[in-house]
Specification:
It is a single chain. With about 575 residues, the protein is an alpha/beta fold. About 35% of the residues lie in helices and about 15% in strands. It contains 20 helices and 18 strands. Helix 11 (about 260-270) packs parallel to helix 20 (about 535-550). The protein starts with a strand and ends in a 19-residue tail after the last helix.
Length: about 575
Amino acid sequence: MKYDIILLDADETLFDFDMSEYNALKCTLEKHSLPFSNDIHDKYHEINKSLWKELEKGTITKPELLTERFRRLINTFGFNDDPVKINKDYCSFLGEQCILFPGAESLCRELSVSARLYIVTNGVMQTQMKRYEASPLPKYISGIFVSEQIGYAKPDKQYFDAVFSKIPDFDPSRVIIIGDSLSSDIRGGNNAKIASCWYNPHLIPNDTDVIPTYQARDYPDIIRIVKGNTGRPSPRPVSPVTCKYEHTGRNALVLLPADRDLRSRFRKAAPDFSFTFANSQDSSVIERLSSKSEIVIGGAPINALKKSDSLRLLQLCTAGTEPYSIRGELPDNVMITNATGAFGLAVSEHMLAALLCLYKKLHLYRDNMSTCSWADRGEVRTLKDAVVLTVGLGDIGGRFAKMCHMLGAYTIGVRRTDKDKPDFIDELVLSDKLDSVLPRADVTALVLPATDETKGLMSEERIFSMKKGSVLLNAGRGNAVDTNALCKALKCGQLSGASIDVSDPEPLPPEHPIWKCRDMLITPHVSGYYHLKNTYLNIAELCVENIYRYAHDLELLSIVDRSTGYAKKK
């Protein structure tokens, strides 16, 4: 490494401050019953930016700045409110905004292997620390220096002198500051006589007297500069990176619901692409645009995708990959990625809730309410010392098994390999040994994709080999279970209960007899949808990250192995 002490600016270098500002201002004005619009936001942004420039010049203090920005906004639009109270609420909302640029965590992870990283920021102490601590960055960062804590602000040399005094084994020749601001970060680096890298993703012309040592357009370029490989001295602009993927177009079709903020993040992640945002139900639009898109985000109809000569990346918003991963459906030059890891919390909690509902007979007490019956439904069960068998130990199955283990269950896991047994699994067996453990389980939970191997896994024979009085949960794919056999097992008492969020057929026809099974819980494939906000946010983050990676020739996340239907493990 050419530089092994790296000073990183926070906002607009690692954190998407523009987006955070927009969200925080919107929440603040709504709390104060004040109108919000893009025009109001743009005016606030203009006022705030100019005041921070004054702070850098030393013509205003930070306490004055924090109140003055809202005083000016109030006066501009004729609002009747207290700027001090508005600022207090704004800082609180801003602290809740932890929005990293796509690739920021990967950048810090890679740099931290061979260098010590420090964040240097002029932001408000409480706000900056709250955002920083809520991010995944602390595990890569050796320290954070906020101007409010230091007593001076960038670009003041005294700020940097104070920072340097707190860094062990400090060597100025091995230090570089990286930031987006010429007036704050780069001038500060020049004042401190250390190397500087201007992070300039939009290639803004430098019409100032501030000259950085280097200029970088993207994170990969920063890595090259720090390592001393191909760093380009300023002011020469950095050329776009060359992608290893074959590109035939520069269009991206997004079928994931996206508000203004998310749309902006997609565009920032891949500025060379033209993004079209469409309703996933608008088949005519999807049919027309799919054939022209290099990237498709979401589950477009397979027939529409098969007609495309431009498609190179299909980013699914589901964990399931069928029918797209079926051999021959899409050309081999189309990369498929899925949303593995996004659904673990929602689906595992759904499974646990269903299991406890059955164990505590809450569904029967719910039935009591329809007849206003004050009836005792008798003995209930506990998970303590129960044997819980989880078939499929991915993110969802692993989380479910872990929760059961924490509640005192003996956990058995079934998966394709026996490597790296998790601590929360008491016993791990391979898939071909399923029949040996089924009769022991009080609870059998299925969390499997639709593959040739999983289709019909729980046949009538297997269902009736389960422990008498046990419970079956299915949150993977419906065709893993013989629905008619499940119905028969419930009616004769072989099983004491079952919960399915997926079915075969799907949707279940109204005349199917399983609807009438007393100890049956049925939900219409909703556990992993967007009903839990966390799930949607996870998917959105993954999509933005992968679009960034694709556009910048980086390894993609959750690449699907078409032979298995699973995301490849690293």
